[in-house]
Amino acid sequence: MGRCKAISLLWCFQVKRPVLLIRLEKNWLPFIPLTSPPLRPSARLCLSVQLAAQVLGDFDDEDIGFGLVDEKKDSAVAKKLGLDEVESIYIFADNEIIEYDGELAADTLVEFLYDVVEDPVEIIDNERELKGFHNMDEVIKLVGYFRSEKSAHFIEYDDAAEEFHPFVKFFATFDPKIAKRLKLKMNEVDFYEPFMEEPVTIPGKPYVESELIDYIEEHDRPTLRKLEPHSMYEIWEDDIDGEHIVAFAEEDDPDGFEFLEILKEVARENTDNPNLSIIWIDPDNFPLLVPYWEKTFGIDLSSPHIGVVDVEDADSVWMEMDDQDDMPTADELERWVEDVLSRKIDPDDDDDDDDDDDDDDDDDDDDDDDDDDDDDDDDDDDDC
């Protein structure tokens, strides 16, 4: 089929090439507290998609079609395609529907689309590719050792990869030397949590697709995870009891790097705690949001910070650091995290204080009213 920038929706549903669809409405929708002040999502969404379409339109190596679904005019089509959320971007690739939960920026969207069109499993054939695999420590990744691409066990692995592509990185090798370097046995798969030094071998090899999917879904909330532009909404919505522990640190800054290393140490010591999940945000990745975050949270992002944030109202409590030039020790940071998990430190406490203040104000008002009543009584006595 020929290349096109605008395509019919039913045709989109039938073609095998990746297709991007958007649902639009006129009403504005609120953003989550962590992201940005309310703007016009529809306008930003349209502009980002138009720019992405123009960029991809200049390349002949990928065949990606773009289509718009109007929330009111095309409601029947949207229902048939399973498009549930308005102001959302859906990507149809092969038999999978991928919802884009990232930043509404053309460059981020284009980069994400190129990830989508890549094979779900990347093959490691040599030492250079193995080094690249080890350098990728900020994402969930899996690696398996199989006899060949025609192996039934590899096919199961590849099918599981399609379910999580491109959010979870899948790797494989057919080279026994590479497998030895990875300490993998035949048909074995290792699971790497972000920032952890050692992987976990998934039990029960050889695996079927459903077993791999179940294991990943059970372990898809890392102890320490980085907020990425292409998945920022998805990560922020994955809160624990309505709260997030958030750490701001610039990796390229000496203080930020030091704080991040301490954070990794704490995460590694507590990786078995299912109630602990820390979101690391590098302000350099979100320059336009830095002023908003600083104003909302009352912090200076030129230095590292860690705090607990209420996802509903953006109330927050931040760890006090006596000297910004002297980072907290791993023990001090771990004790602070334990206080957060035990609710000794809770952003909702500020709400209670505010309520108390309101009650005090009400009491003062009542007292004033009583005084006024007394004055009125005195006036009445004088009149008598």
End-to-end gap: 100 Å
Name given to the CATH homologous superfamily of the largest domain: Glutaredoxin
The residue fraction in helices comes out at 40-55%
Q: Kindly give the count of domains.
A: 3
Question: Averaged pLDDT, please?
Answer: 80
Portion in strands: 15-25%
Radius of gyration, taken over Cα atoms and rounded to an integer in Å: 26 Å
CATH architecture of the largest domain: 3-Layer(aba) Sandwich
| Strand ordering within the main sheet | 5-7-6-8-9
The SSE order reads HEHEHEEHEHEHEHEEHEHEHEHEEHH
- What's the tally of helices? 13
Largest sheet: 5 strands, mixed
- Give the overall shape: globular
In CATH, what is the class of the largest domain?
Answer: Alpha Beta
CATH fold descriptor of the largest domain: Glutaredoxin
Low-confidence stretches: 1-17, 23-41, 377-384
Oligomer: single chain
Q: How many beta-strand segments?
A: 14
Question: Which structural class fits the helix and strand makeup?
Answer: alpha/beta
Keywords: Calcium, Muscle protein, Sarcoplasmic reticulum
Function: Calsequestrin is a high-capacity, moderate affinity, calcium-binding protein and thus acts as an internal calcium store in muscle.
Biased composition (Acidic residues): 347-384
Organism: Gasterosteus aculeatus aculeatus
Write the layout of secondary structure elements.
Blueprint: H1 9-14, E1 19-24, H2 41-57, E2 65-70, H3 75-81, E3 89-93, E4 96-100, H4 106-117, E5 121-123, H5 127-135, E6 141-145, H6 152-164, E7 169-173, H7 176-181, E8 189-192, E9 200-201, H8 209-218, E10 224-226, H9 232-237, E11 243-248, H10 254-269, E12 278-281, H11 290-297, E13 305-310, E14 316-318, H12 330-341, H13 348-383
Parallel strand pairs: 1-2, 5-7, 6-7, 10-12, 11-12
Antiparallel strand pairs: 1-3, 3-4, 6-8, 8-9, 11-13, 13-14
